[in-house]
What we know:
With 209 residues, the protein is mainly alpha-helical. The protein has helices at 4-29, 33-51, 60-91, 119-129, 136-146, 153-181, 187-200. It has two domains: 4-91, Phosphotransferase system, lactose/cellobiose-type IIA subunit (Methane Monooxygenase Hydroxylase, Chain G, domain 1); 137-208, no CATH class. 10% of the residues are buried.
Amino acid sequence: MENEPYQSQRNYQQQAAEYLSQALEYDEQSENHELAIALYKKGIEELEKAINLNIDPNDQRALDLRTKMRKNLAMARERVEILQKLIQTDSNPVIKVHVRPTKVQRPLRPRSIGSAPSSASSNCRSRVMSPAPASASSMRLTSKLKQPPPQTINNRIKELPSTANARKIPTQNQSQRISLKLPNVEPKLVSYILNEVIENRPHVKFDDI
């Protein structure tokens, strides 16, 4: 008969431990907080029953077990309150309101009629209005026009091969030099670009392209 209160206390404590262990599993996995709260509450009920039992004040085992169950009861209640707050915050999501900043319109400054043009516009106009420098080919052409024409047709025939050969020699030398610098480019493309440069602007080098 003396061991009956202690045994009843032990039974309630074991039942409470089963509920609390299941509640901890759901709580750690964060799968179902509501089910964890329900299991915590069942464990709390079993602990309260065990604590409210009349035990022998001289039974040290019963006293130690009651002290232990009171600590577990306080922790279980605290955990239930935390989970209830989490559920409440999840059910009431915070709505973020994005406020667009108002644009401040600055008054436009009127342009003065007699104001000088900007440097960029003046530079552009100077480039457009200034005549392009005369190329070397045009200078050669004017110098040839000033010279008196050849007297006989035979002299023209003799001069044409020499001028043709003079034009071909730098073209061939320059094309060979560039073909060595550009081994991965087609020779046709190199010769085409070279001919365009020499015929149009002989003072331009191939490295400038």
